[in-house]
From TrEMBL, chain A:
Disordered: annotated segments: 399-426
Membership in a protein family: Belongs to the DNA polymerase type-Y family.
Entry function: Poorly processive, error-prone DNA polymerase involved in untargeted mutagenesis. Copies undamaged DNA at stalled replication forks, which arise in vivo from mismatched or misaligned primer ends. These misaligned primers can be extended by PolIV. Exhibits no 3'-5' exonuclease (proofreading) activity. May be involved in translesional synthesis, in conjunction with the beta clamp from PolIII.
Residue intervals passing through the bilayer: none
Source organism of this protein record: Allokutzneria multivorans
Classification via InterPro entries: DNA/RNA_pol_sf, Rev_trsase/Diguanyl_cyclase, SulA_CellDiv_inhibitor, UmuC
Protein name: DNA polymerase Y family protein
Automatic annotation (TrEMBL), chain B:
Origin species: Allokutzneria multivorans
Protein name listed in UniProt: Protein ImuA
């Protein structure tokens, strides 16, 4: 028996959020576009023929003065936070389903406020005070309650299957939920001649699982008015929660985004290791001033690593925006992710299998590197990009993992004076001065014509005895420097040693060691 | 490489699965490549590390090097390493064990310095982890439980003269010792880079 839920739905939320952010009236014709297609449009735009899913060009033809705004899930989430806060002032247990939609368990508040209709009215009023229009629906289960909210209905208890049955199969595909593969699934089912949710629900569950996999089985449960997941869900053990302390506290959105990425990956990895996935995620934070913040995100689908990351980022973004308005005492110093509800491997197995097959070597590597960044910080994992330059150090640009690998200088240009390869395997970062001596024990330097004053015979480092030079090459002048390769006599069983020296004409230092 | 195939912690699934490596190195290794799940300790030569990593990264594997702040990515590229799949963690600080363990979960070849700073328990845990994940662990320093120890000796440089020419390559002996099937010491003389 699915939980009875009150769902509050703000129509055209991406449009409302975009208009609010851009300072536009909600009554101008406005469309939010993603990948060249209309994702959502305002009522005024709809009135003149703009439709969801239209190509951008078509939409502009239908409405020449249409304002186009790029899709931005972060913005949608940020603007939604005050709405959630407004509802939370009325009743506890608020869960964000996605930006624009939130759910409240029906039982408590409807008893307290005297009936579900009364709660619905109160909610609409309260959200209207926050300047946002919304609709409310009540039904058993999140899927049915969301569809009820779109129609402003209260579905009687245990009435969800009857409510859903006549609705079109396309209701399963809500673009705002950004469910991967759902559109294809709906399309496939429709081409098999199934038109309504009721017809789909009548198919035997086992056949649906065989034919459409785990994603199909989940859609089938939804269409049947069942809870979105099998009742075998587990209460997660408390040690599954993941905590991150920030010193200095997080105050900026970009830092928050990085923090979200790292902690999200950690939680996901921790769950995946136990064959679990999260379907209800508690996000808790403590500010510098010890204010405790908490928000629960509920999801119809098991959260992927990206899903966790996005929700954490959205939430931090929302809180920090409040902080920017002076509503928060300081930055966020502690963040805790608390998986409130997880589902086990048995429900996820197919997803895991298909996911594993698709997970490329690169993705696995990327996840491991992000985990290390989570341990040591963003500037701990690097990748080298090779470009142009004369010195061995100049030619490599180290880029933090996750940043685009772009070289500093183009490699194609000719770089006269560059030391021929091989490059020393180890570059010496701090200055290690050496003295180059000739056969008489006098210092070898470089004259005005960039030539050595005498053939080098020995190299003296700060520690140890002078080492005899067996052979050398150079000098290669480059800008204000000259470079010299020397091969030194064997010491120990390692054998000969080669160094790349750099000099400014009077002194020499070790630039690289061939090892 | 599908993790779903790992059924036991013993790494049986990886038995016989190797990553490619230069022909000369195959002569001193007890396997026809770098065996997944194996630990190969390398002593005293970054160019040897590059030679070990080159073929595998060139054929799609990922590698990470922990704790070598001066490592030259350019030299790595010249040695044949696909540097777009080479990650560097120059300063793991006190979290070396955690960092190497995290890397071993997703990176095929993990090399690291500071081997002496790890405790016995950490070493045992790491070994178990790499066997289970099929990672090739490359400690750059003493590592008593390694399957194979490789070390360089008798380096001889070529290319330089009395100011003319330039360094081209070195010849070096690679000595291998180890346990079990690798117990018989073997040596090979190779050119690095080559």
């Amino acid at each position: 028996m699915p939980t009875r839920l009150i769902v509050l739905w703000c129509p055209d939320w991406p449009v409302i959020a975009a208009a609010a952010t851009a300072g536009l009236s909600a009554h101008v014709p406005l469309a939010v576009v993603a990948a060249n297609h209309v994702l959502a449009c305002s009522a005024t735009a709809r009135a003149v023929g703009v439709r969801r899913g239209q190509r951008r060009r078509q939409a502009q033809r239908a409405c020449p003065d249409l304002e186009l705004v790029a899709d931005d899930p972060d913005r949608d989430a940020r603007v939604f936070e005050p709405v959630v806060a407004a509802v939370e002032g009325l009743t506890p247990g608020v869960e964000v389903v996605r930006p624009g939609v939130l759910a409240v368990p029906a039982r408590g508040p409807s008893r307290y406020f005297g009936g579900e209709e009364a709660v619905a009215e109160l909610l609409v009023d309260r959200v209207a005070e926050a300047g946002v229009e919304c609709q409310v629906g009540v039904a058993d289960g999140l899927f049915a309650a969301t569809l009820a909210a779109r129609r402003g209905l209260v579905v009687p208890p245990e009435g969800s299957p009857e409510f859903l049955a006549p609705l079109g199969i396309s209701e399963l595909d809500q673009p705002a939920e950004r469910l991967p593969g759902r559109a294809e699934l709906v399309d496939l089912v429709r081409r098999l001649g199934v038109r309504t949710l009721g017809e789909f629900a009548e198919l035997p569950a086992a056949d649906v699982l065989n034919r459409f996999g785990a994603a199909g089985a989940l859609a089938h449960r939804l269409a049947s008015g069942l809870e979105e997941r099998a009742p075998s869900r587990r209460r997660p053990p408390p040690e599954l929660s993941v905590t991150e302390e920030f010193d200095p506290p997080v105050t900026r959105v970009d830092v928050a985004a990085f923090a979200a990425k790292a902690i999200g990956e950690r939680l996901h990895a921790e769950l995946a290791r136990r064959g679990l996935a999260c379907v209800r995620l508690g996000i808790r934070a403590r500010t510098e001033g010890s204010t405790e913040l908490e928000r629960v995100w509920r999801c119809a689908e098991p959260l992927t690593a990206e899903g966790v990351r996005d929700r954490v980022r959205w939430q931090l973004d929302g809180w920090l925006r409040v902080a920017g308005d002076g509503g928060l005492d300081g930055g966020i110093s502690v963040l805790l992710l608390d998986p409130r509800e997880v589902i086990g491997a048995e429900a996820l197995q197919l997803d895991l299998l298909s996911g594993e097959a698709e997970t490329s070597v690169a993705e696995r590597a990327g996840r491991a590197l992000v985990r290390v960044q989570g341990l040591l910080g963003p500037d701990s994992v690097w990748r080298g990009v090779i470009g142009g330059g004369r010195g061995p150090g100049e030619r490599v640009r180290l880029v933090p993992w996750g940043d685009p690998p772009v070289p500093e200088r183009p490699a194609e240009r000719p770089w006269p004076g560059a030391v021929p390869k091989p490059t020393p395997e180890r570059l010496v970062t701090g200055p290690v001065p050496v003295v180059v001596l000739d056969g008489d024990g006098a210092e070898v330097v470089v004259d005005e014509r960039d030539e050595l004053t005498a053939p080098p015979r020995a190299v003296l480092t700060e520690k140890g005895p002078p080492r005899q030079v067996l052979s050398w090459s150079g000098p290669w002048p480059a800008a204000a420097l000259v470079r010299l390769q020397v091969v030194l006599e064997p010491s120990g069983e390692g054998g000969e040693r080669a160094l790349l020296l750099a000099g400014d004409g009077t002194t020499w230092w070790v630039e690289g060691v061939y090892e | 490489m599908s993790l779903a195939r790992v059924s036991t912690a013993s790494g049986e699934e990886f038995a016989g699965r190797v990553l490619p490596v230069r022909t000369e190195l195959r002569e001193v290794l007890p396997w026809p490549g770098l065996r997944r799940g194996a630990t190969i300790a390398l002593r005293g030569s970054t160019s040897l590390l590059f030679a070990v990593l080159a073929s595998a990264t060139a054929e799609g594997s990922w590698a990470a090097v922990v704790g070598l702040p001066g490592l030259s990515v350019l030299a790595a590229a010249e040695a044949g390493i696909a540097v777009q799949r080479l990650a560097l963690v120059p300063r793991p600080g006190t979290q070396l064990g955690e960092v190497v363990a995290a890397l071993a979960d997703g990176i095929d070849l993990v090399a690291f310095t500071g081997t002496a700073t790890l405790g016995t328990a950490q070493v045992r845990k790491l070994s178990a982890r790499v066997r289970q994940r099929g990672t090739v662990l490359l400690p750059l320093g003493p590592w008593p439980s390694a399957d194979v120890h490789l070390r360089c000796a008798n380096t001889r440089w070529h290319g330089t003269g009395a100011g003319d020419g330039h360094l081209t390559h070195r010849e070096v002996d690679i000595h291998a010792t180890g346990r079990g099937s690798a117990a018989r010491p073997r040596s090979v003389r190779v050119c690095l880079p080559g």
